[in-house]
Amino acid sequence: xxxxxxxxVAPSVELSTEERATLxxxxxxxxxxxxxxxxxxxxxGAAKGRENRHIALELDVTRRTVGRWRTRFVTERLEGxxxxxxxxxxxxxxxxxxxxxxxxxxxxxxxxxxxxxxTRTLAKELGxxxxxxxxxxxxxxLKPHLVRRFKLSNDPRFEGAAD
Length: 163
What we know:
- With 163 residues, the chain is mostly helical.
- It has 2 domains: 3-82, no CATH class; 93-146.
- The chain is built from 8 helices and no strands.
- The protein has helices at residues 17-28, 34-47, 52-59, 63-82, 93-108, 119-126, 130-139, 156-162.
- Helix 1 (17-28) packs across helix 2, helix 3 packs across helix 4 and helix 5 packs across helix 7 (130-139).
- The longest helix has 20 residues, at 63-82.
- It starts with 16 loop residues before the first helix and ends with a helix.
């Protein structure tokens, strides 16, 4: 078996005139994000027919990084390198665990010695962080401090004053 037979071949990159102009602008832009400058340089190097390992050495990145952006450009063109792929993020475990308790307390109970819950008093009551209470309130658009409460007056002159 020859040495070059067991090596994978990177996809070749062909650029249109517009794509080349855009990539050149991105690679030289002083206000362009650093990651986009790097990606543009990778694609321009690949378009010249250079191997991933040479591009990686020149730009001080891994061959895997060069391969990722070369492949993404071939499949998705400029759109593929101009934005990052979505990432899932961490699953919110505490939020779901305490959400029902926070909502129940906020909507159905009144704190002792107060007219409404604050994030800190509710958090202290439930033994959780006030930022978790705030996130739940924001998600459900709850604003206990803005709820208007009033008491009807027993004064017979009160009704006449409103007219």
